[in-house]
Specification:
The protein is mainly alpha-helical. The chain is built from five helices and no strands.
Amino acid sequence: MLITKDEIIEKLDLIPPMPETVKNTINYLKAGELQKAADMADNDIVLKQKISKIVNSAYFGFSREVTQTRQMFSVMGVEMAKSVVLSYMVELLKPK
């Protein structure tokens, strides 16, 4: 069974727009601007919470909680930060 062009357009219309904060964070990470990406991500409470959960997990083993977004991004590094932000972006763009 083939999907019609109208059905495809209907499905695409269900995809919500990506928040500017996430878009800018990704762009800064692609440019290697870790601190600017962290400052941008600081404006998205859910993204910051996801990053905090990862950085403060047993994987990193810090004795004290890391609370500053810039520190969290520095701990993760560019590549891991990109992965986390991209997975968050995919989660946001899932059709409801």
